[in-house]
Specification:
With 245 residues, this protein is α+β, with helices and mostly antiparallel strands. Helix 4 packs across helix 6.
Length: 245
């Protein structure tokens, strides 16, 4: 026998377990906020921009072939920036505070499509350390690329700086809490329907008709215990009155 569920029954299930859904949602949001604010270490990001251009010894006017050649070099430069040749020197300038592998994990190199600008980003719990690593890496790369590629076509467009009141890039507490709100609601609603599906107890007359598929002939009402205790007392008082009369 196929069972159909109406919208009224769905909303009835949600209404019946609305407090459970709210509690699950609030717990999810609270845990997400607590973890984001008090557990996860904030990570800051500083970035510097490098321009890959023609060699300084060449004529100042650029043509299409020069630009295409520079664009092809950028992919190679992206690899060289994070290579031990560069990062070893950066680690030395940082007085050994970080190993080459640690610096590699902190640095991200990206290039805009069809652009000669390379973005060098560094993430660290200390924004000033992140800016220092970015600037030292850019300076070392600009100096070493002359020896490695026999070209002098890298310029630093914008050094990394720490802005006042700089916000961390991660975590993002309010975004995490918003995600937790949605997930909490989904889990709460799912649990509510699961409990309703597993609940096979009969509570109302409609449940009897639905479960047994039989018509309901009558209903036995329930009486309050206090009324049942008072009923014999009233009966005895009435009998006593009739006997006196």
């Amino acid at each position: 026998m196929e069972e159909t569920i109406s919208l009224k029954e769905l909303f009835g299930t949600l209404k019946k377990r609305i407090m459970m859904i709210i509690v699950i949602t609030l717990v999810a949001v609270s845990i997400s906020g607590a973890v984001s604010f008090f557990v996860i270490t904030p990570i800051y990001q500083s970035s510097t921009q490098l321009l890959v251009n023609q060699e300084k010894s060449e004529q100042p006017n650029l043509n299409v072939s020069d630009i295409q050649a520079n664009l092809q070099l950028i992919n190679t430069y992206n690899v060289i920036i994070k290579s031990p040749v560069i990062l070893d020197k950066v680690a030395e300038q940082m007085d050994g505070a970080f190993t080459t592998g640690e610096l590699n994990s902190k640095i991200t190199v990206q290039t805009e499509r069809d652009s000669q600008v390379v973005n060098l980003s560094v993430q660290d719990p200390d924004p000033y350390v992140a800016a220092e690593i970015a600037n030292k890496t850019a300076a070392v790369f600009q100096e070493e690329i002359v020896n490695l590629m026999s070209v002098d076509n890298v310029s630093i467009l914008a050094p990394a700086e720490v802005s006042p009141g700089q916000s961390p890039v991660s975590p993002q507490p309010f975004l995490n809490m918003a995600i937790a709100l949605v997930v909490g609601l989904m889990v709460g609603v799912g649990v509510a329907f699961l409990l309703e599906y597993l609940d096979n107890t009969i509570k109302t007359e409609q449940d009897i008709e639905k479960t047994l598929a039989l018509p309901l002939l009558g209903v036995i009402g329930t009486m309050d215990q206090q009324i049942t205790r008072e009923a014999p007392a009233r009966s005895s008082r009435s009998a006593h009155v009739r006997s006196e009369s």
